[in-house]
Please model this.
Amino acid sequence: MKIQLPEHVKQIIHRLQQEGYDAYAVGGCVRDTLLGRCPQDWDITTSARPQVVKSLFSHTIDTGIAHGTVTVMLDHTGYEVTTYRIDGEYEDARHPKTVTFTGNLVEDLKRRDFTINAMAYNDTAGLVDAFDGIGDLKRKVIRCVGVAHDRFGEDALRMLRAVRFAAQLGFTIEENTRQAVADLAENLQKVSAERIQTEMVKLLTSAHPQEMRTVYELGLSRVFLPEFDRMMETPQITKHHCYSVGEHTICAMQEVPQDKILRLTMLLHDVAKPVCVTTDENGQNHFKGHPAEGAEMARLILRRLKFDNDTTKRVCLLVRYHDDRPTVTPRNVRRAISRIGVENMEALFAVKRADTLAQSMYERQKKLAYIDAYEETYRKIIKEGQCVQKKDLAINGRDLIAQGMHTGKEMGEVLQSLYERQKKLSYIDAYEETYREILKEHQCVQKKDLAINGRDLIAQGMKTGKEMGEVLQALYEQVLDEPQLNNKETLLALALQLQQTKQE
Model:
């Protein structure tokens, strides 16, 4: 089997061979090449000791010399060269207590995580595959080298890496390997948040983010993302949904591009639903306030997993506004752009569409049409260069200076005042427009607008007095929140439920 090695890799291997040492390309670069993928990095394993490697190349970096790794720099590109080694006992679920250098390639390959990563190659010996990595590539299987419990005991992060590789490659996890993950999942708590974050992002931005379901099933998320477990275990009994919160989340992640911000947003957009859920008299679930609560929960989660500030800020903003539904008018959309930021609007539309496509079919076309109208109005505003931020004002500081105004606090206050005035006028216009729409649709705005009255309740057997007044007030408040309930049949049924509740 012939593998085309990059020139720099061949150069390093041949130089080591000239001095009488073995050297091979090893690990992920061999795996990816065999799969027809382009390796991101090329690693080399050799029988030469680190000091020998350093002596043979003019520019090296001591990347991990205690564990036998030297980075050889060629034309500003680094190649990790690691001495064959046997790892001693692992005491912290990551690092071996001792490392013993060896001259045996197979002994070195034994210490690696999965069979598909335990293959080596050079042009002289060809492919060295001591653990049937080729067979597992053909079978599309992730399988540990040797005893799975031993490999995961050495480095607990390998359990999450197994799922990540399955997600990236579209493979399944071999049964013994899978069982070992389930048995040892709690050991993941020994792994740093930074390392977990790296693997999680690779999983989420893969072609198969639905492998988060496997993370949950094997007990891994319980360790580093227990909020996801609660999502998987929270049903959504509502006409708008056909999946649990967690399954909806998994579906939504598959509806956005393989982008870190978008995938993280979809992972966390409904994270607060389990803590915001309520159930009405009809057994229907409601999740009022979950976007705002979710933004705060997302912030705490992302901080816990050591994400950078920019990622955290953008994801939390998108979570906060993912369910925001302003009436689509130029004024309302301008205000939305001002709140959310022009730079985040494209992502917001992608999030909204993914959220909708992961729901039930109930009113799906209506919801998608709304998003289309929202986006169309946004694009028109941007195309026309309408004012949505302070910098879009038709004047700036230079114009005020030309009018004789001094720089400083006063100028800032004037510009802010002009911008705020524009926002207030837009708000009033939007307020009035919404008011006129309510009147046009004859929505209930006063108690007398209710589709039923006291006579209807008397006809149902309800006595006049305090109880009837309380029932009518409760119905009125409910209709203000949900105008579609304002029909006689629905309100009479709700009135009967309220009466029964009071009697109980």
User: Anything to note?
Assistant: Residues 1-139 form a domain with the Beta Polymerase; domain 2 fold (CATH 3.30.460.10). The longest strand covers residues 77-83.
